[in-house]
Amino acid sequence: MKEIVCICEGISYELLNKYLEEGSLPNIKRLVSEGNFGELQCNEIPYEASCLTTALSGVSVKEHGIISYWNAKSYEYIPVEWNSEDIKQYMFWNKDEYKNNRYALINLFGTQPTYEIDGYMLSYSMDKNLRYSYPKDLLNKLNKKRLPYVQDTCAFFNPKTDLKQFCLDVLRIDQLRKNVFINLLQDNIDVGIVNFTAIDRLSHFSFHEVYQKESKDTYLYQAYKQCDEFIGELMEFADKKSAKFILFSEIGFGALLKFVRINDYLCQTNFMKRNDVGEEIQWKETLAFETVQGSHGVNINLKTAFRDGCVSIDEYDDVIRDVMDNLKKMRNPHCDQPMFSDVIRGRDYSDSKYIPDILVVPYDWRYLPYGDAYWANHVSRDCQTGWHRANSFWATLDKQAEEFPIKSLQDIAEYIKANAI
Q: CA angle, corner 65, sides to 350 and 40, nearest 5?
């Protein structure tokens, strides 16, 4: 076996250090004291889809253009999810020089629908379905071994139900994921990669508890403890197989006070037209609109790009300049400070056709853009009390990792690929 890659999604660098100082995470403590450990700079817009794509490919977000789970420029306006046909060209295991390995790939963005590899794949599915494994009979075989496996979508936050049950379900899903991963690793796997999501998922809806309760009384603390236990088991397995082990989180986490609807401001400044009741947009009278959640952007309603576009190519430069000038003046409606520290033209950031026309940089990361209402409402964004940050961490027992000055997600990719040769 060559390596085990463990991703613990959504770890807060500050909380991690707090729990380490308290002695609550003995296995991560071993990584820190015996191996190499450091702060990790994530992508400028820290979102799972963007950051995992970079960490598992080495391709920068400016090149691959994937900044959210959804395409930020959907012709029909409703954001469309990325799938494996869009992503797999980037992932390192699909490159010729790494195809001689046998893989176990568990819960990685960009693997739905699954596809043929040498080994096993359980996808990162964004909807409820039973077609998320390769080989197709893998789930049946696991069930016969009394190793059930379910997707994250089986535990979905609902503001009308009990937060406690949601937290317990999320923790249980990661437990099932760990059991299956360790079982699959025993089948002559060369490279195993698993993504645990409980910390991220609980942080979104319970991060406020960090400031309201003692650490050990929160489900978020239990998620950190559970991940630490998983890490201990996986390190032990790697030791027995003389395999490299690396742990990282592709996104960090921090407090969130409010999401802010940019579309409201665009209405106030006459760049958007909505009906008198609700949030329904009158597209043929709208010049600009907020892009899908997590992308931190605004699109110009260009005739050649969108179904009911009303801005011509000749008008585009004048409209985008006017929108950007107004966004630079936007004030935070919840406190007396600017909404954005910078407003950037998308094509100045990246040549990718998937990048929004305008990117906004939050002035205060406790107040973030709400995003397109279709998906933001669906995932109960107004109930969230924590969101991603652009700094996280990495750790490995490999002393030779000093040869790889790991600072960024692209550095993580280079380290993983070097061990997979």
A: 95
